[in-house]
Amino acid sequence: HAKRSGRNQFSFFTEDMRLRAMDRLRIETALRSVLSRRELRLHYQPIMDLQTERVMGVEALLRWNSPELGEVPPTRFIPIAEEMGIIEDITCWVLREACSMNQRMLQQGIGNLPVSVNLSDIHFRSRALVDAVAQTLKETGMEPQYLDLEVTESLLMSNLDSAIDLLGELSDLGVTVSLDDFGTGYSSLTYLQRLPLDRLKVDRSFMQNLVADQRGQAVTRAVIALGHSLGLMVVAEGVEEKTQHDWLRKLNCDGVQGFLMARPLQEDRLLEFLKAHPILE
Ligand code: C2E
Ligand code: MG
Ligand code: MG
Ligand code: MG
């Protein structure tokens, strides 16, 4: 394609744009019935405690297998679901499913497994979220301290005062809150101290320079120390190599999540994983 002349390149790009728009329209159409046709499911990625190598929790990650489109990644369909105004319904489904999974693990004698759910920026701005969380906890019987909600910096910074209020209300319910993808947003460090958070998740972009590069180590060390000095647990995301894992242990990180330990797993595979790696209790 790079060899095309300027004129052909132009028509190539418009064709590409047309295809992308069509793709989007097909996703939008298929998304309308995603809940009624029960096409969503959750995978769970273990989060390991670095001291004990036990499972300290799992992150619920949304998967959509569409009969028309095949597997559509969450990074592709969630922004569209947000624009369509159906992200609230999807998040409620995720919350219910994640809490039910926690109850199933408990009933099967595996233990009380903390589960993290990702919140969309848009849903977070609505008051209905607090009610939805409260209702899900009540209906599933899940103990609140085992539900963790992951929020992003962009979400918090867009309206700091209302974010503080909402985080406070969520904390009052007894759930925990994690700041996801930490280090990729624009958060000012003075804001961070005002937010009632429980956990920092260091973005996986930090992992790249952790091993070879002394400066990379210095930055990650500082981020972990910052989290600890604010009284937060620190979990590193995207750990793919043993050397990264070992560095994070040296740097006093609390938890690790990544392909090295486990990929996101469907529930029966998670059960197998939990037989080999007990839960931290
Ligand atoms: P996230 O919350 O930061 O989730 C972590 C992502 O990193 C997941 O991608 C996971 O599969 C991937 N990952 C985990 N370990 C590794 C690793 O070692 N290396 C690499 N390269 N990647 C790793 P996934 O499942 O495709 O999800 C992407 C994003 O979609 C999530 O990022 C989150 O922002 C969003 N998402 C997923 N599920 C939900 C959901 O239920 N609701 C909302 N609102 N967003 C969701
Ligand atoms: Mg997350
Ligand atoms: Mg993340
Ligand atoms: Mg991330």
Poorly predicted segments: 1-6
The bound ligands are: ligand C2E, magnesium ion
- By secondary-structure content and strand pairing, the structural class works out as alpha/beta
The fraction of residues assigned to DSSP E strands is 15-25%
Q: In this structure, how is the largest beta sheet organized?
A: 8 strands, mixed, barrel
The Rg value, from CA coordinates, equals 20 Å
- Could you state the order of secondary-structure elements as H and E? HEEEHHEHHEHHEHEHEHEH
Relative helix content: 40-55%
Kindly report how far apart the N and C termini lie: 56 Å
- The largest sheet has its strands arranged as 1-2-4-5-6-7-8-9
Shape annotation: globular
Count of DSSP strands: 9
How many DSSP H or I helices?
11
Mean pLDDT: 91
Protein name: Diguanylate cyclase
Domain EAL: 24-278
Please give a handful of descriptors for the protein shown.
disordered N terminus; 9 strands; single chain; eight-stranded mixed β-barrel; globular; 11 helices; binds ligand C2E
Report on this structure.
With 281 residues, the protein is of the alpha/beta class. The chain has 11 helices and 9 strands. Strands 1-2-4-5-6-7-8-9 form an 8-stranded mixed barrel, surrounded by 4 helices. α1 crosses α2 and α3 packs parallel to α5. The longest helix is centred in the N-terminal third of the chain and has 26 residues. The radius of gyration is 20 Å and the shape is globular. The N terminus is likely disordered. The structure holds ligand C2E and magnesium ion (MG) (3 copies). One magnesium ion binds next to loops.
